[in-house]
Amino acid sequence: MGLMVPAMATIERYVASTVPVLAERVRRMLGESGLIALPTESFYGLAVAPFDEQALARLWQVKGRLEGKPILVLIGDRPQLEPFVRTIPPAATVLMNAFWPGPLTIVFPAAVGLSDAVTAGTGSVGIRLSAWQPLADLLRRVGPVTGTSANREGMTPPRRAEEVQHSLGDAVDLIIDAGPTPGGRPSTVIDVRGPIRIIRDGAIERGAIAAQLAAHGLHLDADSR
Fold this sequence. Notes:
The longest helix has 13 residues. The relative contact order is 0.23. Helix 1 crosses helix 5. Helix content is 29%, strand content 19%. Strand 2 and strand 3 form a beta hairpin. It is α/β, with parallel strands linked by helices. The strands form two sheets. Strands 7-4-6-5-10-11 form a six-stranded mixed beta sheet. It has a five-stranded mixed beta sheet with strand order 1-9-2-3-8, sandwiched between helices.
């Protein structure tokens, strides 16, 4: 008897005119604890339903993610933020109004009961509202998903669907191909739970963030990276 060959993921081409049909397929797959690779404004990401414990466990297994690292959540519009956060600090409102949709991940106080598989026990959750059209089109219809990069921990994030298929094709159910993603700098990550701190420099410059905060009487922490 020959060796069993693992099934490879289906690749589905993103076409703007057929987004409603694609979104329905994605919604159904997420509802079955599916794992989907989809394009973001920088790299391809791994999407599961963020309240599905079975899917989250599968994501951690595939990712090989290090303990203590929370999982980013991607949303399609501002109302989708509500189930994930305990409060919205004033700095978050200023930054959302200025930079969302866009490459800014904001770290909020997590809602009570949000899975440790998302928060990694930190009591916080990073949220981003993307401006990347293929992703935004889907998430407005499908709802929030996780958005960690579609690579095993320590490996290079992929910019093409074919790269995801090569590295993770036997571990994911569906790859949405929107062509090469832009790559470049990742999203800037800012923590607004206490002193306002940039915890990862990225696509939005700290000077622009500082200027927006200052215009509303708020300031970056002096020890911010």
